[in-house]
Write a structure and sequence with these properties.
The structure holds 2 protein chains of 2 kinds. By secondary structure, chain A is α+β, with helices and mostly antiparallel strands. Chain A has a single domain, classed as Roll (Ubiquitin-like (UB roll)), CATH 3.10.20. In chain A, about 15% of the residues lie in helices and about 20% in strands. In chain B, strand 14 and strand 15 form a beta hairpin. Classes of the chains: A alpha+beta, B mainly beta. Chains A and B meet through helix 2 of A and loops of B.
């Protein structure tokens, strides 16, 4: 099953261990991860559900393209990394 | 009525929140929190709880609260804009689409200026005013102000988006609230936020074409403060001058013949004497540094007719400190003031500005200075 792994920089603010989840899109796997750990959502997504400006998500090494809709596909064995973009300082 | 002086000071900076306390030996940093994280605003409510708004570069704005003087913190909710309704194309007068997303927490004020409650007002970029009645657990955007058609005429001053930086709740009537916006003038509600009216009559904008110089909706009050015991006496440090109101913001008068410069960001007014106010000037908007490299504060005791230039204890050569709009505060006694600069220097006076003491020259850039009540 896909695994969602959060940047260690987030650990400074709240606990967010890697999670095994199900789902076929970035939106679906992130929603599952947030369901188990609700506090993380507002750190990764803005109030309209889009990826925050200075956050990035990689699926198997590729940055997601659909930053608002999060419709990029996720395979059953994908690794989904939630990282901070260096543009954020 | 006299009040005892404050012995505790909170300093929000680009890299953390610092608490200073006055001991027998003088003021010292006694506590730090959020080291490394930008803190855009610190607010102490009437119950003594401390609110700190974090402005995290990657993870967005967060609101923290401490009920034990800053020893421990709990996470509260940051205000969240509602979903933009289908079909709504919210553009400013320049045609730029306005995001319905929190950009920065820029003002926090108690919902009541006289009682300890769980009510708060929160001013934000891109121009929304929020209300909480549960101590920041949940927030609601004030739609009557947000839905004003005039909002599309607001614009950013130093930021991409307009922002509410000043919220004043009338101590005689908490239903009456004034907000000041960069750049969107001053607005007043007398019914708890159900209806709003412009209150920037008399302000003048040098950065506009002459025919729009007195347009209330384009004024850039950098900060607005009211005298606690004379709340109809208000002062504004504006983008191109200093303005004063003696009638509760119904009208504003421009202060003339200001020594050094009329440009700056911060002002404070004496809590009991509305004719006494302080400012920390910089040269002008294109040169945001002290005049001649000499850092001074200005004090008027006669409602702006004349000013004292206060320099005792402040650096008088090669000083390039700029004082941001929330970085000057006066305590409840009116004797103690403190201000902090973009270059991380912090000064305090215990005699209304006659003499200043440097508390640090090595803090991160300072965003907000607040005395404990």
């Amino acid at each position: 099953m896909p695994q969602v792994i959060f940047t260690s920089a987030l650990e400074r603010h709240l606990a967010c261990p890697p999670q095994d989840v199900t789902g076929a899109t970035v939106r679906e796997v992130l929603n599952q991860a947030f369901a188990a750990n609700p506090a993380v959502r507002s750190y990764v997504l803005d109030e309209q559900g889009a990826l925050r400006k200075h956050m990035t998500v990689f699926v198997d090494g590729d940055a997601v393209r659909d930053r608002d809709g999060l419709s990029d596909g996720v395979k059953p064995d994908s690794q989904v990394y939630v990282m901070q973009a260096l543009s954020g300082g | 009525m006299s009040h005892s002086p404050s012995n505790r000071l909170f300093v929000a900076t680009r890299k953390g929140l610092f608490t200073l306390e006055r001991a027998a030996a003088g003021w010292k940093i006694s506590q730090t929190a959020f080291l490394g994280d930008p803190v855009s605003i610190v607010h102490i409510d009437r119950a003594g709880r401390i609110y700190a708004a974090l402005d995290l570069g990657h993870f967005g704005s967060k609101l923290k609260r401490s009920a034990d003087g800053g020893a421990t913190w709990e996470e509260r909710a940051a205000p969240a804009y509602p979903e933009k309704p289908e079909g709504v194309d919210d553009r400013d007068d320049n045609g730029t689409s306005i995001p319905w997303k929190l950009q920065k927490v820029w003002a926090l004020a108690d919902g009541s200026a006289t009682e300890a409650t769980d009510s708060l007002w929160c001013g934000t970029l891109p121009g929304g005013l929020f209300r909480s009645d549960d101590g920041g657990a949940t927030w609601e955007l004030n739609r009557p102000l947000w839905d004003k058609p005039e909002r599309k005429g607001w614009f950013g001053g130093g930021y991409d988006w307009p922002g509410i930086h000043s919220v004043f709740v009338d101590p005689r009537n908490a239903q009456r609230v004034l907000v000041a916006i960069s750049c969107g003038g001053v607005w007043e509600t007398e019914d708890g936020g159900a209806t709003w009216s412009p209150r920037a009559q008399g302000m003048r904008a040098e950065y506009m074409p002459p025919e729009r110089a007195y347009d209330q909706n384009v004024q850039d009050p950098h900060i607005m403060v009211a005298s606690r015991e004379n709340p109809d006496a208000l002062w504004v440090q504006h983008h191109n001058g200093i303005f004063r109101s003696t009638d509760g913001a119904a009208s504003w008068q421009e202060i003339k013949d200001i020594p050094r410069s009329g440009f700056g960001f911060a002002t404070a007014v004496h809590p009991q004497d509305p004719d006494t106010a302080w400012f920390v000037p910089a040269i002008k908007d294109e040169k945001r540094i002290p005049v001649d490299g000499q850092l001074v504060a200005l004090r008027t005791r006669d409602g702006g007719a004349s000013f004292d230039v206060l320099d005792n204890g402040l650096p008088q050569e090669n000083a390039y400190d700029l004082i941001y709009r929330h970085s000057l505060d006066v305590d409840a006694s009116g004797d103690r003031l403190a201000f902090g600069s973009t270059t991380g220097s912090l000064w305090i006076t215990e005699d209304q500005g006659d003499s200043w003491t440097s508390l640090s020259a090595h803090l991160p850039p300072i965003y907000c200075v607040r005395f404990a009540p």
